[in-house]
Amino acid sequence: MKGMQSIRDVVVEGAIMGPFICPDDDIMNDGSAQAFPDFGQDFRAFLDFLRESGDAETLSPQRFAALLGTDLAGLMAASRHPVQSRGMEANTLQRHLHEAVRVIQLCSELVGSVEQSLAWFEHAALPVFGGRTPHQLVSEGRTDDLVRYLSSLEAGFSG
After folding, report:
1. How does pLDDT run across 57-109, given as a tens digit for each residue?
2. Is the distance from CB of 61 to CB of 93 less than 8 angstroms?
């Protein structure tokens, strides 16, 4: 991993969408902010950062939300998880996180940066999908449509 930073300006289509600041729950006991790694092109480092300690399959919703510049409640609402039982909530949220990571990986392969892919995922209004963001599409269960769209861009389709 390159450097560490706690405040990050992210540019999407020429507009600054940041800064992304560490949320309050990432404040250390001494009052300093926990820094996010600068992933650059290292998707594996991004995935390792999201993984819960000692569990290769479970992704941290808190870390993912922080990287998107949102809070956990917003991420949980976006995952449209049911409220009946904790087990179902966790499974639905993890499925949402894994689908989001799948899209972010494909995007990062196209643009060459995990940070740009995260900003695109959260903020890019895609005209071909009626102005919806990639995150909204994943939340609506349209991950496969988004994957096909990214594949068409990779193949050279320009709209």
Report:
1. 899 999 999 888 888 888 887 776 544 445 555 788 899 999 999 999 999 99
2. yes
Secondary structure letter of residue 52 according to DSSP:
P
For the chain, the straight-line distance linking the first and the last C-alpha, in angstroms and rounded, comes to 35
Q: What whole-number distance in Å separates Cα of residue 102 and Cα of residue 157? A: 20
Q: Phi and psi at residue 124, in whole multiples of 5°? A: -75, 120
| Separation of alpha carbons 39 and 111, rounded Å | 13
* From 11-15, 93-97, 106-110, 112-116, the region with the lowest mean pLDDT: 11-15
Residues 55 and 31: their CA atoms lie apart, in Å, by 28
Round to whole Å and give the CA distance between 50 and 96: 13
Residue 61 dihedral angles phi and psi, to the nearest 5°: -65, -30
CB 45 within 8 A of CB 4: no
pTM value surpassing 0.85: no
Give the Å distances, CA to CA, from 30 to 20, 26, 42, 63: 21, 11, 30, 20
